[in-house]
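Researcher: Quick test of sequence recovery. Tokens follow.
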């Protein structure tokens, strides 16, 4: 079939809206119609050319809400008409990683997904005989796309897809980092570095976990009002202090925070986030993605004296088994998403969504098909 898609032909060029070919679903695959898709920093990172794993030409996008249109042979867990959130971290339930019970990083289709291909080693997208590659196994910037069954979380049809699409990446990543990865206990003191979509979601996670003190840190004070509305108890701008921000935080909290979350992707703030943790037990979680080739540093004594440094992808959330409950939490008003959608626009305007992101003007732009 012919589908309209935003094609990234080359790194560093604007996306091009055009009609391309999409082959139907093969064994274990599902054709979905994207209803809405958020634009995330990772799409911009790949488009910039700085992502060493970026493969072109491709259809970007990985934060969608969609409806099942057709199922391929052997598909049993979803039906035509089901509402789904595509998963860039699938859940096969059978690989060593899924069976470990210790991680959400299913590896069942990792190798082909990393090459921009479906599990059988081919692409479903093409134009004039030239293959166009999939992206993160999702390619949400197309009206229709094909995904493996194991990469779809079936959700409640009552949920508006133009909002819960953000559970496909940013919102879940921030909340999951707090609830799944750090497992913050009630009464904890928490520091959150960076108040974009991820950090604001981490604040929501800290509220759900009943953290007592939630300290939000950003160099852009425009972010503070919304952070407070969501439940931040203190907002601080590192630029207002002569000392390193970790020292400020340690002074504010009688020795350091119980948990910190780096939601910027900057290796210097990753160090600050570790070093503001309380001696003996403080844990820091890296959520932001640093540029290719960058390295983190600290004095090992920080770890010897009991601080813990860890990281998380997709908030440690197993998409198929846990995302439906995130949708229910949204429907009950326990997770706020509507406020995260700063702009909506048709696919034709997608390049404007990237501009708004680069200008720091949006928490999230959502493409409505
Ligand atoms: N100190 C404090 N805050 C900072 C600093 C800094 N040195 N540098 C940037 N910030 C703030 C910005 O002002 C912004 O509010 O961090 C926030 C980052 O927000 P966004 O750019 O909207 O990013 P977000 O979508 O939340 O993603 C954060 O996670 O998935 C990754 O690639 C993504 O690395 C990025 C990170
Ligand atoms: Zn993302
Ligand atoms: Zn698996």
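Model:
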């Amino acid at each position: 079939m012919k589908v309209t898609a935003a094609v990234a032909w080359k790194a560093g060029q604007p996306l091009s809206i055009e009609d391309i070919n999409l082959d139907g679903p093969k064994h274990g695959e599902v054709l979905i119609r994207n209803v809405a898709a958020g634009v995330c920093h990772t799409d911009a990172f790949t488009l910039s050319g700085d992502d060493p794993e970026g493969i072109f030409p491709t259809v970007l996008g990985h934060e969608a809400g969609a409806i099942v249109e057709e199922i391929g042979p052997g598909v049993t867990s979803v039906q035509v008409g089901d509402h789904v959130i595509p998963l860039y971290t699938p859940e096969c339930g059978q690989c060593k990683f899924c069976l470990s019970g210790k991680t959400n990083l299913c590896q069942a289709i990792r190798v082909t997904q990393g090459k921009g291909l479906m599990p059988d080693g081919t692409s479903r997208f093409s134009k004039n005989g030239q293959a166009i590659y999939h992206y993160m196994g999702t390619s949400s910037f197309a009206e229709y796309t094909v995904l493996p069954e194991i990469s779809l979380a079936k959700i409640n049809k009552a949920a508006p897809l133009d909002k819960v699409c953000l559970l496909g990446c940013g919102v879940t990543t921030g909340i999951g980092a707090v609830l799944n990865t750090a497992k913050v206990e009630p009464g904890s003191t928490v520091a959150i570095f960076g108040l974009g979509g991820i950090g604001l979601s981490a604040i929501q996670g800290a509220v759900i976990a009943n953290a007592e003190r939630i300290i939000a840190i950003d160099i852009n004070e425009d972010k503070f009002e919304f952070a407070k509305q969501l439940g931040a108890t203190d907002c601080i701008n590192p630029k207002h202090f002569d000392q390193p921000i970790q020292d400020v935080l340690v002074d504010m909290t009688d020795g350091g925070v119980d948990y910190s979350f780096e939601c910027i992707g900057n290796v210097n703030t990753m160090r600050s986030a570790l070093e503001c943790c309380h001696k003996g037990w403080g844990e820091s979680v890296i959520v932001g993605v640093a540029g290719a080739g960058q390295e983190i540093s600290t004095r090992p004594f920080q770890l010897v004296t009991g601080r813990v440094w860890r990281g998380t992808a997709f908030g440690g959330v197993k998409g198929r088994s846990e995302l439906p409950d995130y949708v229910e939490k949204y429907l009950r008003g326990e997770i706020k998403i509507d406020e995260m959608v700063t702009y909506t626009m048709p696919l034709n305007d997608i390049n404007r969504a990237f501009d708004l992101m680069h200008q720091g003007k949006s928490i999230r732009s959502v493409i409505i098909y």
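The mean pLDDT is 97.
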